[in-house]
Design goal:
Elements (H helix, E strand, L loop, with lengths): L4 E3 L3 E2 L11 E8 L5 E11 L2 E12 L3 E8 L5 E8 L4 E8 L5 E3 L3 E2 L3 E8 L3 E2 L4 E8 L12 E11 L3 E7 L2 E2 L20 E4 L5 E2 L2 E8 L7 E6 L14 E8 L4 E2 L1 E9 L1
Antiparallel strand pairs: 1-7, 1-10, 2-7, 3-6, 3-8, 4-5, 4-7, 8-9, 11-23, 12-22, 13-17, 13-21, 14-20, 14-23, 15-19, 15-21, 16-18
Length: about 270
């Protein structure tokens, strides 16, 4: 599975017989989906062996709309464009324009940039009541510009239990507790390396929508690990802005002391 991280790679625009292939660049970003996406556009060029930036733009893109960017590139020997987007349905089409007005489509390929961000929790006793154990949301203040268009997906769940358990992923709703930046007491992830905040003090979620559910087995006297790869189970759910995704679990029999890991995939 790949997410929308698009790049042209470096394009040769060196002077040949006093002229360049392209003098202008047109970038069309389209959102064919039904939800608003976020995008972050970057452009770089090389002159005299020095890599410099010529474009940096972060924007929201409503559904069924386009954004068009134009950049002069008549002084650039080599240039590269990269776009990160928060939705599968966001795509980029890029043209090089010659001095004579000829539009040449430039190759664009997807290059997903991934990291897995996780959190662990074991400071509670599980009962038959639903318990919101871990929750993630997109951080409201970004550290790096690329994080603005980051695609964030629930990636995996692991539950260590001695009794059968039920688990649900809830999108949205109101979650108690507090969302914090990394690092946390259990996870030494650098603050600047993730676009996520985590809530490991929650216990309830009100409202929201269940987007995935299942159950796991237990083993009396020993812990069994229930490991679920959500993406391999076809849950490809980019996390919307201003929305949390929460792991809710409960015991199917008696109370239990368990440990839980919730992982998110980041592409930016």
């Amino acid at each position: 599975m790949s997410m929308p991280v698009y790049t042209t790679g470096f394009i040769d625009n060196v002077l040949v017989s006093g002229s360049r292939r392209f003098v202008q660049l047109m970038i069309i970003i389209s959102n064919s989906g039904l939800a608003t996406g976020t995008t972050y556009l970057e452009g770089y060029y090389i002159m005299a062996g020095v890599n410099q930036q010529f474009a940096a733009a972060g924007n929201e893109l409503p559904p069924q709309t386009n954004q068009v960017y134009m950049y002069p590139i008549s002084s650039m020997d080599y240039f590269r464009v990269e776009l990160t987007a928060s939705l599968f349905q966001v795509e980029a089409t890029i043209f090089g324009i010659s001095a004579g007005g000829v539009y040449t489509p430039l190759p664009v390929k997807q290059e997903p940039i991934r990291r897995i961000t996780s959190e662990y929790r074991d400071d509670f006793t599980l009962s038959s009541a639903d318990f919101a154990v871990l929750s993630f949301r997109r951080r409201p203040a970004i550290v790096l510009p690329e994080q603005y268009g980051a695609a964030l997906l629930p990636q995996a769940v692991e539950i260590l239990a001695t009794r059968p358990v039920r688990y649900q992923l809830v999108l949205g709703g109101t979650v108690n507790g507090t969302y914090v930046n990394y690092p946390t007491p259990n996870t030494n992830t650098l603050n600047a390396s993730t676009a996520l905040q985590v809530n490991y003090t929650c216990s309830t979620v009100t409202g929201g929508s269940v987007v995935f559910s299942g159950q796991g087995t237990g083993l009396s006297g020993a812990h069994l690990n229930t490991a679920v790869n959500l993406i391999e189970n076809q849950l490809k759910l980019p996390l919307p802005h201003n929305t949390a995704v929460t792991l809710v679990i409960s015991s199917l029999t008696a109370s239990d002391n368990i440990g839980v890991t919730f992982r998110m995939e980041e592409q930016w």
